[in-house]
TrEMBL record, chain A:
Entry keyword Membrane: yes
Protein name: ABC transporter, permease protein
PROSITE patterns: ABC_TM1 (PS50928)
Domain ABC transmembrane type-1, first and last residues per copy: 22-216
Automatic annotation (TrEMBL), chain B:
SUPFAM superfamilies recorded: P-loop containing nucleoside triphosphate hydrolases (SSF52540)
Highest taxon of the lineage: Bacteria
Protein name in the entry: ABC transporter-like protein
Entry keyword set: ATP-binding, Nucleotide-binding, Transport
Length: 229, 245
């Protein structure tokens, strides 16, 4: 077979190192989705309550994380926190914090949008039988709006996973970073190393994201059937 | 003389500058039916919604069951178990079966035993001819059937007072009768009710007392039969003529 670029993966521990990088990326992504998701649900519910001050604050929070590019957020937290506030975290932790806050901000908007799309009549019917606010959310609003949240949430998750590729810019040893190291270290022997390594990384990201898309489709179909009775 | 079940005094409501209800006072005796009539926008629905706290009011008092209602959310939650309401838009919860719709308030709000609440629900469903639909979902029902279930959902909490807000207004004509008959039967069983309706024949049959509203004021308060034969005000007379029933 001669000298094929694919052998770049079998040089030293390259293959395992790439998987290790993937683990770092995936760990940060899933921790952020988990914690950010929970925080986002809480904030989304709070944003549907009638408290003008709370609403304004949460709105500002959302807009900040939506408008400021992720890379700027990463730099802000990575360089400015230690400098101005003397808070030192590892790059992985900074990444997880930034992505969690971003996830929470966008999630809160998804949750809020779905909740307020439930017709007012449903809310009044619930109130009229004496449901408390918590019960109203639990038995009426949430069951009727979950299926509206799912597609956007999964879309957000895949965005978070993909955007972990920016983490190398704050020196997280993620899968992209490892890939670059491998390409550079082997550039004298494998001129087409970039093709193989990035091609492989593409497949890895695909493996992470594709099941989510499938899951989204299934859940959405099921949720819709449930909400309509 | 016994205290009326509901006593409203000088009730006022406005949206900003716009006055919607002005100095509304009336009483509802236990076991009687009060019908609110009046042109669209006269404040009937707003008034009835004030009576279970779905709308806030800016002045006046509501006395219910011998107690002056403090209009706090918590207090309203308690009172709503005693003041049932059925809406025009028969909003059953689409994610629950008929039976679950009916049991939600009894089990989760009133903390009653599910078995006992379900027995009552089934017997109420039977009274409105819907017992075979207990496990159906709302989307499988017609408008009239949904509205009957909505009435049962309110009755399940054993309310002392029922509010009906144009409950037949969005039903097909052939569905209207069945729903009205249920309300008429409740009247015969001496359920205390306040009814907003545009069905004049029904109003005449059921109303012990008619309140005629216009522009947020009670123009006329007349015993039921008399209102339809000898209304006191010119405005009520022309309203009745325009209804052409």
């Amino acid at each position: 077979m001669g000298h094929s670029g694919i052998s770049i993966f079998f040089e030293g521990a390259n293959f395992l190192r790439l998987l290790g990088g993937l683990y770092v990326s995936a760990k940060i992504a899933f921790l952020s989705i988990f914690f950010g998701g929970i925080l986002g649900i809480v904030l989304g519910v709070l944003r549907t309550l009638h408290n003008p001050l709370l609403r304004l604050l949460l709105r500002l929070y959302l807009e900040f994380f939506r408008i400021v590019p992720t890379i700027v957020l990463l730099f802000l937290f990575y360089y400015i926190l230690p400098q101005s506030f003397n808070i030192n975290y590892k790059a992985d932790t900074v990444g997880t914090i930034v992505f969690s806050l971003w996830m929470a901000a966008e999630m809160s908007d998804i949750v809020r949008g779905a909740l307020i799309s439930v017709p007012m009549h449903q809310v009044e019917s619930g109130k009229a039988i004496g449901l408390s606010t918590v019960q109203l959310y639990r038995y009426v609003l949430v069951p009727q709006s979950v299926h509206l949240m799912i597609p956007a949430t999964i879309n957000l998750m895949t965005r978070i996973i993909k955007t972990t590729s920016l983490l190398l810019l704050i020196s997280v040893v993620d899968v992209i970073n490892v890939g670059q190291q491998i390409i550079e270290a082997n550039s004298h022997r494998y001129q087409d190393g970039a093709f193989w390594v990035y091609g492989f990384i593409f497949i890895l990201y695909f493996i992470l994201c594709y099941p989510l898309s499938r899951l989204a489709r299934r859940l959405e179909r099921r949720g819709k059937a449930g909400a309509n009775g | 003389m016994a205290e009326p079940l509901l006593k409203v005094e000088h009730l006022k409501k406005s949206y900003g500058e716009k006055r919607v209800l002005e100095d509304i006072s009336f009483e509802v005796e236990e076991g009687s039916v009060v019908v609110l009539l009046g042109p669209s926008g006269s404040g009937k629905s707003t008034l009835i919604r004030c009576l279970n706290g779905l709308e806030a009011f800016q002045g006046g008092t509501i006395m219910f069951n011998g107690e002056t209602v403090r209009p706090s959310p918590k207090n309203w939650r308690r009172l709503r178990q005693q003041i049932g309401m059925v809406f025009q838009s028969y909003d059953l919860f689409p994610n629950m079966t008929v039976l679950e719709n009916i049991l939600l308030g009894a089990v989760k709000v009133q903390k009653r035993k599910r078995d006992e609440a379900a027995r009552q629900a089934m017997s109420l469903l039977k009274e409105v001819g819907m017992e075979q639909y207990a496990n159906a979902y709302p989307r499988q029902l017609s408008g009239g059937q949904k509205q009957r279930v909505a009435i049962v959902r309110a009755l399940e909490l054993n309310p002392k007072l029922m509010l009906f807000d144009e409950v037949t207004a969005s039903l097909d004509p052939e569905m209207v009768r069945g729903v009205l008959e249920i309300i008429l039967r409740l009247a015969r069983e001496k359920m205390t009710m306040i009814v907003v309706t545009h069905e004049m024949n029904f109003a005449r049959q059921i109303g012990d007392k008619i309140l005629f509203l216009e522009d947020g004021k009670i123009l006329e308060e007349t015993p039921g039969r008399q209102f339809f034969t000898k209304p006191q005000t010119e405005r009520a007379k022309s309203f009745l003529e325009s209804m052409d029933f």
